[in-house]
Amino acid sequence: MYAIITDGSISKYINHPKPLVIGDVQYPARIFSAWTASELAAIGIIEVTFDDSKKKNEKYYINTNQTFTYDADAGTVIAAYGNATAKAHADTLFTAQDETDGLGTEGEVATRGLKYNFIKIIKAQAAGILQDTDWYILRKADADTDVPSAITTFRAAVRTKAAAMETLITNASNTAAIETLYTYVNTADEGDPVVMERPLGEFPELGS
To answer: What is the pTM of this model?
Structure first.
């Protein structure tokens, strides 16, 4: 992306190189690849530098729009984010004022928080894993055929792990703590092969 500087301020943006008119001069698109940065700057074209240092994972945060700032002394245009806002980790309830305003009943859930949504995903994942071996349970009910012990053990392990994951999410103190549960880090000792794991852990696999 490029910014066009006119009379000391940003007048427009160009997402992709294209022919353009500056003043009374028509310039071809090839100037963006053939000219140096200083040559482009001389006619008021500056490539935008993106500063994502404040941008956060949108699964957990609401990012601001980018602000474009032209620094005439440095000859730069920086596109930067402001401070992100954490999404609510707990459910938001209707207040007494909300009820007065006709928006909902006080004490009932107005908006689901991250904990509820992530726990819902855990439940769905566990159900999907168990579904592959549900036929053993159906066969047992239908024909009284014993379920292999390995299957019984695996299914119990899946349910146990799901419960443990849900507990970790429920006990997370804030949005950042929830993000940490899902963040993979190298847990191997220095010099050993990389082992990427997350605090939340993983569901067991059949036969593992």
So the answer is: 0.82
**Distance separating alpha carbons of residues 60 and 65, to the nearest angstrom:** 16
Q: What is the pLDDT of residues 172-200, one digit of tens each?
A: 999 999 999 999 999 999 999 999 999 99
**Quick one: 125 exposed, middle or buried, by C-beta within 10 A (0-12, 13-18, 19+)?**
middle
Distances (CA, A) of 164 to 94, 167, 173, 193: 30, 5, 16, 28
Cβ–Cβ under 8 Å, residues 40 and 4: no
**Tokens 């474009």 sit on residue:** 68
Strands (E), 59-186: 61-62, 67-71, 76-80, 85-86, 92-93, 109-111, 185-186
| Model pLDDT for residues 66-96, shown as the tens digit of each residue | 999 999 999 999 999 999 999 999 999 999 9
